[in-house]
Amino acid sequence: MKIIENENKIILKDVKNFDIEKTFECGQCFRFDKMGDSYIGIVGEKRLILTQKQNDVEINITKKEFDEKFYHYFDFERDYKAIESAFEKDKVLKNTIKTSSGIRILKQDPFETMISFIISASNNIPRIKKIIGLLCQNFGVRHVDEMGEYFSFPSAKTLAELKIEDLSVIKAGYRDKYILDCAKKVDLGEIDILSLFNIGYDDARKELLKINGVGPKVADCILLFAFGYIESFPKDTWIKKALFELYNQKSDDNIDFYGYGGIAQQYLFYYMRQKK
DNA sequence: CGCCAGGCGGGGG
DNA sequence: CCCCCGCCTGGC
Fold first, then answer.
1. CA distance linking residue A244 with residue A268, whole number of Å
2. What does the pLDDT look like over A235-250, one tens digit per residue?
3. Which partner from A11, A90, A112, A189 sits 20 to 30 angstroms from A242, CA to CA?
4. Residue A273 CB closer than 7 angstroms to strand C?
């Protein structure tokens, strides 16, 4: 991959294993939307605009920002080619490579990911996006760029100070109390986000399960999409159906997937959706 | 109108 | 320990 920089944009030339549509539509993130040929979304305090033409991806950031932040955010440390080589050995996964190659697991903000997947429980993607949008509009920090105003994701401290009634504007329903519980546990340090990066998958999962509204599936999403635990395999009703159909799996046993359960989950999910 | 969504918590068996 | 129900809201 070569990087060309001009003004406040870069172009990643001949980039491998990066398809922006697959990456933003695979269900891992909720703040990106398709606008014409581009995907536009909020990451931290910045509004990102990505446009892809074949293997070239243009992003409205400087090379410095890419090196310091977005190289990590878009998971460029990871060798997806090597993972796909491992997947070639599995008959089912081999077939998913054609449809799903190009998905990257984003390294999203931990607190934002926690709240987002608490909201995702028993919910659909358009509504999840709407609720998160309202949460940001009402409690996030307002920013203005050349496209207009946008709002960052609220901090744990901001949300922890709210009362349950304050959250009624976001129309999250019974999830209100879970959002507050999570914000308070993070704000008070009962859940120490930084430590979750270091204590390993099993212990980090136990910590997350202490949060009200975080069960096994939501915990696994957070571990995968924010903390980089690539072995995490979130089991929702869709993927259970996929395991049943593709692997004839009836039990609750976990398949190893060469240690890359998270990537396998995304590849399988996208594969199933294409087939439909 | 009734049903249920990319779950979870709590209660009862 | 497992099973089952209720849960906010919105879309069908």
1. 12
2. 988 888 888 888 887 7
3. A112
4. no
- Is any atom of strand C within 7 angstroms of residue A8's beta carbon? no
Active site residue A217: yes
Q: How distant is C1' of B10 from CA of A155, in Å?
A: 30
Q: What are the C-alpha distances in Å from A101 to residues A43, A58, A71, A96?
A: 23, 19, 19, 8
Q: Which nucleotides of C are covered by protein (CB under 7 A)?
A: 7-11
Residue–nucleotide distance: A116 CA to C10 C1' (Å): 18
Question: With b meaning 16 or more CB within 10 Å and e meaning fewer, what string describes A68-94?
Answer: eebbebbbbebebeebbeebeeeebbe
Instruction: For strand C, list residues 109-148 of chain A whose Cβ lies within 7 Å of it.
Output: 122, 126-127
Give the β-pairing of A9-13 and A56-59.
Answer: antiparallel
Q: What b/e sequence results for A253-264 when a residue is b if at least 16 CB atoms lie within 10 Å of its CB, and e otherwise?
A: eeeebbebbbbb
Which of residues 217 to 256 on A have a Cβ less than 7 angstroms from any strand C atom? none
Q: Which residues pair with A17 in a beta bridge?
A: none
Count the alpha carbons within 13 Å of A169 in the hemisphere toward its beta carbon: 10
Predicted local distance difference test score (pLDDT) of residue A196: 97
CA A266 to chain centre: 11
Q: Where are the beta strands (DSSP E) in A141-269?
A: 142-145, 148-151
**pTM, to two decimals:** 0.96
**For B6, which residue's CA is nearest its C1'?**
A236
CA A244 to chain centre: 25
pLDDT digit string, tens, across residues A164-175: 999 999 999 999
Q: Is A254 helix (H, G, I), strand (E, B) or coil?
A: coil
